[in-house]
# Entry
Amino acid sequence: MPEGDTIFRTARNLDHWLRGREVTGGSTQVAGLPVAGLVGQRVEAVEARAKHLLVRFDSGSVLHTHMRMTGSWHVYRAGERWRKPQWQARIVLEAGDRVAVCFGAPVVELLAAHGERLHPSLSRLGPDVLVEPFDRAEARRRASRRPPDLAVGELLLDQQVVSGIGNIYRCEALFVCRVNPFTKRSALSDDAIDALVTTAATLMRGNLEPGQGFAREFGNGPERTWVYRRTGRPCHRCRRPIRSARLGDGARRVYWCESCQPPGPGRPWRPPAGVTFG
# Structure
């Protein structure tokens, strides 16, 4: 699933090419989506809201897309060959000499003016980690309402607590802060949770500019991540093998180093029932 920084970059690119332009044509494969009604409307802005992308029109209506695991937006010159097949195009917006195409997104819908306030997902999003100033007080309040035995690795992916963090940055932030992903929420102070969120946001902002990425020098050649997708490979800090396990309701795989991210003092840790380690 695209992380918040990927959606942020996509929104910025779409905003560059579409803001202020009039929609001159459009098509869609989404049943019931009134794309013809967008023709003649002007694009006011394109924004990222965590992992959601919003195209705002001067009528007040908003095109909402969520990429999930498969979606992406592309911008082409009119007449330019697309990099993906036409049958994957969920919605196409023509704006003069530019064509914006959303491929493979499971969620494509047109919201009425102020429809975000009533939307079941958008209305419940926590503070966005890439939006300044970040509302720490609200994030703390939302985190405090989660079950005390909730693993912090699950908390960081809860988009209703803080929005925009995905699995890559969850794993990387936990490693950088030396926190075991299975640590209970109640075992961490507000400051410790703040540090995790701030670290994830810092890592994400490092990938917002073109040409930037995860590449880091660890002494044995460039690699993209500290722990993410490195199961069984030596830790860059201590050389112990990286471990991984499924965690939470969504069963997303989390990666960590047992040596650098030990259980908290006085809190013996055991794998949850049914967890299979890599």
About this structure: The longest helix spans residues 190-205. The mean pLDDT is 87. The chain is about 20% helix and 20% strand.
